[in-house]
Amino acid sequence: MSYQVLARKWRPRTFHELVGQAHVQRALVNALDQGRLHHAYLFTGTRGVGKTTLARILAKCLNCTANGRGDEGITSTPCGQCDSCQAIDEGRFVDLIEVDAASRTKVEDTRELLDNVQYAPTQGRYKVYLIDEVHMLSTSSFNALLKTLEEPPPHVKFLLATTDPQKLPATVLSRCLQFTLKHMPPERVVEHLTYVLGQEGVDYDESALWLLGKAAEGSMRDAMSLTDQAIAFGQGAVRHADVAAMLGTLDHRHVLALVDALADVDVQKLLAEVAQLAEQGPDFAAVLDELTATLHRLAVAQMVPDAVDNSHGDRAQIQQLASRFTAEDIQLYYQIGIQGRGDMVHAPDLRSALEMTLLRMLAFRPQGVPKPPVTPLPLRREPASDTSAPAEASTETATSVDGSSTKKPEPASVVAGDSPQAPAEVQASAAHEDDAGSALSLPTGAERDESEPPPWSLEEVEHTATLAPEPEPEPEPEPEPEPHDASLVAATSEVTPEPVTELGRWDHKTWLAHFDALGLGGLTRNLAAHCQLESDDGQTVILRLDPSQSAMQADVHNGRIERALKALGLTRKLQFSVAELDTALETPRQQEERLLQERHAQAVDLLHHDPNIQKLQQAFGATLIESSVKPTPAARS
Q1: For residues 340 and 85, what is the distance between their CA atoms, to the nearest angstrom?
Q2: Which keywords does UniProt give here (predicted)?
C-alpha cells in the first residue's frame, strides 16, 4: 500500500477528533443534536485550520445512515462505518459536490452548478454543496448564487469556505451562518504532534517539536507537512539540530544566550555570542526582532507570570531570566531594540548595527556598566610622620577660600597622589615623576631647577583641594565688598553660613540662612521650602507647613530633614505643624522667589544702562524684552 502523508492520515473524522476549534465544535454539535440546522454555513480562517475538514464532518453528520432513515438519522457523532460515511471519507460520495471556486470563477460555471440543485439527492439524505475559496467567484457568479443561497430546496445545504471573508459581498455574508476558525497556538500544535508521533512510533526531541509548532504559524496542516519533511530529513527521527537546519530559522537558544549576557552585564560574553551567531550567517535583523520579542515576554513575566507566551516552550526559563532584570532595564532595552531596528537601514552592515544596539542597551542602563578595577601605579609617599598633612592642608585651604582665614598650606605637605580630587593632569604628572624616581611632594626652590617650570602651580593644587568655582583663583582672596542691600546680605549668608554648634538653637532667620546648606532635594526640598521654623526647644524642631502643601507630608521626608539638620550640628526631632503661615515671615521658597526677582530687576537695570544696548536702541529702535532676561541663580553652599 502506498504511503499516506500525515496530514491526510490524521485528518479528523468526527467533531470529537477536531483539535483547537472548540467554539465551532460546540455550536455545530448542539445544532445537530437539537435539529436546528441552517441552510448555509460559512467557515473562515487561515490555511490549514480545518475549514474543509469541518465541512466534510458536517456532511457525514447530515447523511450518516447508521441511526435509521429520515431526519431522525441526523447525528453529531457519525459512525464512520456506513456506506455514506465511508464514501465521504474516500471522496466518492455522489451527493457531496465539492467545487474549487478558484478554478471555476465564471458565471457559466455557477449556473451549470445550480441547474442540478432542484433534483433530489441520489444516495444520501441531503445534497451538500461544498464551495472552497468562495471569495474567488466573480461578481456575476455571486449574483447568480444569491437567490438559491437564500432559499434553497429543503434537501440542499451549502457549505462555503474562504481564507478572505472581506472579499465576500455583504449580501452573501448575510445569508450564511458564519464560523471563524482560530489559529493553532504552538502549544496545541506541539501537543497534537506529540500524540501523532507517539502513535507512529517516531523518535523525537521535544525542542524540535516547538520549532515545528512555531514554523507552522497557526496551521495544523502545515505542521503535519513539516513533520513529514523532518522525519525524512532526520532518517526516521525528529531531532532539534536537523529541524533547525531544515527550517533555516534562528535557533532560539542563541537569543536566550544574548539575554543571559545582558542580565550578567557581560560585554565580552555578549560580543562572543554575536560572533558565534555570525558564523551561521543569520539574518541579524531577525535576531534583533527575536531579541525584542523576548524582552516583551520578560516584561510580561515580571508583571503577570502566568500570562507568558509559551510559543517556544521555554516559559520556566523566561520566568527565571525575568527575575534577573529590573523592570526599568527591560523597558529601556526594549525601546533601544525597537529604535535600533529602524536604524539598521543606515548602518554600514547589519552585524555592527546589532552589536551597537546591544552595547547601547548596557551603556544607557541607569546603573552603568561595571568597569574592571584598575591597579594604580606604586607611588612614593612622604614619611609616616607627615601622613596627616594632606588632610590638614585641604582643611586649611578651604578655610582660606571661604575668606575666614588667610593661612596657606605648607607646600611640602601637599602630596598629589593622596588627594582623590586631584585633576588628571596632576595625577599623570605625579605618576610620570614617580617612575623617574622623584618624590611627589611639591619641590622647593632648592630642590628644583629654576629654569624648569613646575608641573603644576600651587594655585591649581589649592583649587583642586577646595573645589572653588573661580576659574583663576587669586593667591590672596580679596575681601568681598560690603553689601548695601539687606537682600544681598541674606544672599551672602546663604552662600557662607556660619557653623552651627550643638548647643545653639535656631530661629526662623537661622532656618532661612542655612536652608540651602541642608542639601535637600526633590520632594523633600519642596516640602521644607514651604515651611517656617516655629520653635526649637533644644530637643524638637517644629516646622509650620503651608496647608496647601500638606498632602506632600510623609515620614520619609521627616527622616531626611532630621539627617540634614544633624549634618549641620543640630540633633533634633522634627515635627510638622500644619497651620496658616505668619505673613510677616518668609518661607525659603518665598525668599528664593524674592531674591530672584531682585536679581532680575538688577539685571534689567544694568542692561538698560549698558552703552551698547543704548546704541542699538538709538540706531534701530530696538526694544529690550525684559521677560527674556534670565539672571544667574545665586550660588548654593
Answers
A1: 57
A2: ATP-binding, DNA replication, DNA-directed DNA polymerase, Metal-binding, Nucleotide-binding, Nucleotidyltransferase, Transferase, Zinc
At 372 the pLDDT is 59
> Which stretches within 216-324 are classed as H helix?
220-233, 240-247, 252-264, 267-278, 284-303, 315-322
The answer on 144 and 13 residing in a single domain is yes
Burial (Cβ within 10 Å: 0-12, 13-18, ≥19) of residue 314: buried
In whole angstroms, what is the distance from residue 340 CA to residue 358 CA? 9
Q: Report the percentage of the chain scoring pLDDT > 90.
A: 23
Helix (H, G, I), strand (E, B) or coil at 388: coil
What distance in Å separates the CA atoms of residue 560 and residue 31, rounded to the nearest whole number?
A: 71
> What are the pLDDT digits (tens) for 229-271?
999 998 889 998 888 888 877 778 888 999 999 998 889 999 9
Rounded Cα gap, residues 254 and 287, in angstroms: 9
Is 90 exceeded by the pLDDT of residue 161? yes
Q: Provide the residue range defining the domain that includes 197.
A: 186-247
Instruction: Name the region of 61 (left: φ>0; alpha: ψ -120 to 50; beta: rest).
Output: alpha
**Rounded Cα gap, residues 533 and 234, in angstroms:** 83
Run of H or E including 206: helix 206-215
Alpha carbon distance 325, 339 (integer Å): 20
Instruction: Flag whether 448 is in a domain.
Output: no
Q: What is the CATH number of the domain that holds 550?
A: 3.30.300.150
Rounded mean pLDDT, 459-482: 45
Alpha helices (H) in 456-507, listed in sequence order: 458-466, 486-495
Question: Identity (one letter) of the amino acid at 631?
Answer: P
Question: Is the domain of 588 the same as that of 621?
Answer: no
In the predicted model, what is the mean pLDDT of residues 514-524?
87
Evaluated on CA atoms 586, 526, 402, 476, the torsion sign reads: negative
User: Cα 266–271–277 angle (5° rounding)?
Assistant: 130
CB 257 within 8 A of CB 291: no
One domain for residues 312 and 400: no
Q: What is the pLDDT of residue 40?
A: 92
**Whether 606 and 580 share a structural domain:** no
Tens of pLDDT along 135-149?
998 888 888 888 888
Least Cα distance to 79 among 98, 88, 70, 91 occurs for 88
Whether residue 106 lies inside any domain: the answer is yes
With contact defined as beta carbons under 8 Å apart, do 257 and 266 qualify?
no
Q: Are 277 and 245 in contact (CB under 8 A)?
A: no
Specify the CATH number for the domain of residue 102.
Answer: 3.40.50.300
Q: In a 10 Å sphere around its CB, with 0-12 CB exposed, 13-18 middle and 19+ buried, how is residue 15 labelled?
A: buried
Domain membership flag for residue 473:
no
- Do residues 340 and 356 lie in contact, with contact meaning Cβ atoms separated by under 8 Å? yes
Q: Are 165 and 136 in contact (CB under 8 A)?
A: no
565: its cell numbers: 539638620
CATH at 356:
1.20.272.10
Q: Is the pLDDT of residue 437 over 60?
A: no
CA distances from 538 to 166, 438, 502, 637 (A): 81, 55, 9, 25
